[in-house]
Each structure stands twice: as structure tokens, then as C-alpha cells.
Amino acid sequence: MHLARLKLTQFKNYEQQALDLSSRLNCFTGLNGAGKTNLLDAVHYLCLCKSHTGLTDRNLVRHESEFFRLEGRFVRDEAPEKVVIKFLPGQRKDLERNGTPFERLTDYIGQYPVVMVAPDDISLVQEGSEERRRFMDATLSQIFPEYLQHLVAYNALIKQRNALLKTFGEERRFDAILLESLDRQLPAPAALLHDKRAGFIAEVAPLFQEFYAAISGSRETVGMVYDTQMSASAFAEQLAAALEKDRVLQRSTFGPHRDDIQLLMDGQPVKKFASQGQLKSFLLALRLAQYEVLRREKGLAPLLLLDDIFDKLDALRVRQLIELLLSRDFGQIFITDTQRERMEAIMASFGADYRLFEVEQGRVS
Ligand SMILES: Nc1ncnc2c1ncn2[C@@H]1O[C@H](COP(=O)(O)OP(=O)(O)OP(=O)(O)O)[C@@H](O)[C@H]1O
Ligand SMILES: [Mg+2]
To answer: What would the pLDDT profile of 204-228 be if each residue is shown by its tens digit?
Structure first.
């Protein structure tokens, strides 16, 4: 599966742009602010119906414009699939394939698996646990449609539960029956999230170590551990045991919405002592491992979006990274870089079918 053609209309700093893409390697070079990342984000949006940046749809509409539209022609088993997404603020966003609308987003997510590696991945290490849950959720939602459904259901229940706890606290009353009706619904989605996350970490952790060793030349060892208080079999009891605390704090203190991943380098939290280059290698390895899990589980190569990955890596790591990208079957790749010479050298060593695009102020040539 690959993206053969991409068309952007009023998307971020692009007015109107169509691109014919290589099925293997696509490189985008240009100055800061030219629109390289925006292009990768357009591909990301086509695959997952949301921006990688976490911006709301409204912010993706080109300034002074009314709407944006993205069109992608994917090719799977030789058959073309035309996907169109239109967004007009205040209206539902339209998503269709070969002219047929998708009613539910959960039916669409995972059709076009994608992994993006970006400078803001640093938040996976530096920010709170929410970012790391999102890492698990983003992968698992693309693999199992029911995962996303259960995640949405679980989050809605927790939101209701928190609102209820807050009301109880403020009004100094307590209604056990009301709370129980929510608590009865929680174990099923909670157990599914927990099981899938545990399975994911078990699968991704050894790949992560392997990729890190390949990029760093085995200089440091890395690890990751699923950090959860939850036991799938005893969830209902654990939830009940947390009730006193929940009432005092007026929110749900227990459950998979509190899960985390411990990220380690040489046995220590990576956040505390990794250098910038080590951190960059660490995050790259994490993303490539995520990619590999997706590839295995879906049985097809996801799109790989590599934004600014060579920045901050020393020459040795750049070379090792390129060798890694060459030696594995990574499917269709999109890379951005500000340095054209570096891109040209890399592509020459790639030898494969590639295209180089020059990006300048929202225009691609
Ligand atoms: N909704 C929008 N409407 C118009 N322009 C926008 C919008 N959103 C972002 N931009 C512009 O897009 C440009 C950023 O593009 P992008 O992040 O893709 O640059 P880049 O080529 O990746 O740069 P760098 O090398 O610094 O990473 C900025 O100039 C920004 O102002
Ligand atoms: Mg950029």
C-alpha cells in the first residue's frame, strides 16, 4: 500500500498543491518555515483524520480561507483508492473513499497505517503520562478497531464519573447507586485496554532495544516497562477500594487512564540524564519499533514519515540510521531536511526509486 498522489487545498500554508509521489522514498528539502512538516502532516491527516501536531482542525485551515480539503490516491494491490477529506468549520468533516462516505471514524482508522517521527516526539519523554498513553493508543487504535471503540467508551465513562464525584463533593452528598451504574460499565473496556497495552509493550520492547542498538552502535542499553496499577481480573475490587480516595479528591484515581510507560536508559529514567543525541536516537528507536509492530500486526508496510530526523545526530548515527532504513522493508518513506546536499547523498546511497521535492513558501517543485 502506498500513496501515489496527494492534493492539498487551503491546508496550512498551502493554497493549492498536487504531488505525484514515489512508492519508495520521497524527500522534501527547503528552508525553515517553507512547509515541509505541513506536507507530512497532510499525509498524517489523510491516514488518521487528525493532525500530528494535536492542533484542532480549525487551525489547519489556511489563514483567510473558509475550509481545507485533502485528497489522496492510495494504491493497494494495484487497485486505486481515492480518499477525500473536507473540513469546513462548524460542520461535520466529510470523509469518503471512492465516493462512498464513512459514517464512523473508527471504521476508517487503521485502513492506512502510518507512523510519524517528529522533533516534538521529545514530549514522549519530557511530558506527563498522557503522551505515553497516546503512544500506545495511537498504535493499538490502528491495529484493533475495537480498541478505539473501547477507548472512546472508557474515556466517556471516566468523564461522567469525574463529573459525578465533583458534584458529590461540592453538594456534600453521595449517591452510591448512581456511581455504581457507571462502575458496572467500566471493567469491560478497562480490561480490554489493559490487555492490549500489556501485549503491545511486550511486543514493542525487544524491537525497541534492537533498533536502539542498531542506531547507537550498542553504546547504551534501553528499556521500556508497562507501568500500570491495574490487574485485569481484580479491577472491580480495585475500583471499589479506591472509592474513599476518589471521593476526597473528587476524581477517578484508579484505572487505565492512569497508565504509563517507564522509559529507561542504562536502567535509569531516560528523562534525567540522556544527552540530546542519545534522546534523539532513543525516540527514533521507539518510533521504528512502533512501526515494526504495526507492520507485523497489519501484514502491510505502514507509511513512514520522518520529519527532521538527521538534526542533532552525529555522522556515525546518521550513517547507521540510513543503513537501518535500507536494510529493512520500510515501505513508502517521506523524509524532510533543510540540507539538500545531505538528502542527495542519502538518496544516492539508497539506490532505490526516489523523488526529491524542493519546498518554498507553500509551493513544491
Ligand atoms: N493555518 C495556516 N495558515 C497559513 N499558514 C500556516 C498555517 N499553519 C501554519 N502555517 C505556516 O506554515 C509554516 C510552517 O511550515 P512547516 O512547519 O511545514 O515548515 P518547515 O518547512 O517544516 O520548517 P522547519 O524547517 O523549520 O521545520 C509557517 O510559516 C506557518 O506560519
Ligand atoms: Mg519542519
So the answer is: 999 999 999 988 887 889 999 999 9
Instruction: Report the CATH superfamily, name and number, of domain 1-113+300-365.
Output: P-loop containing nucleotide triphosphate hydrolases (3.40.50.300)
CATH code reported for the domain at 121-299 = 1.20.1050.90
Question: SS3 breakdown of the chain: % helix, strand, coil, rounded to 5?
Answer: 50, 25, 30
Burial class (CB in 10 A: 0-12, 13-18, 19+), 46: buried
Pocket-testing residue among 11, 12, 57, ligand 1, by greatest number of atoms within 8 A of Cβ: 12
pTM above 0.85, yes or no: yes
Q: Take atom 11 of ligand 1 and give the residue whose Cα is closest.
A: 13
| Domain extent listing, the chain | 1-113+300-365, 121-299
Secondary structure class of 228 (helix, strand, coil): coil
* SS3 label, residue 36: helix
For residue 166, give the nearest of 249, 231, 97, 286 by alpha carbon: 249
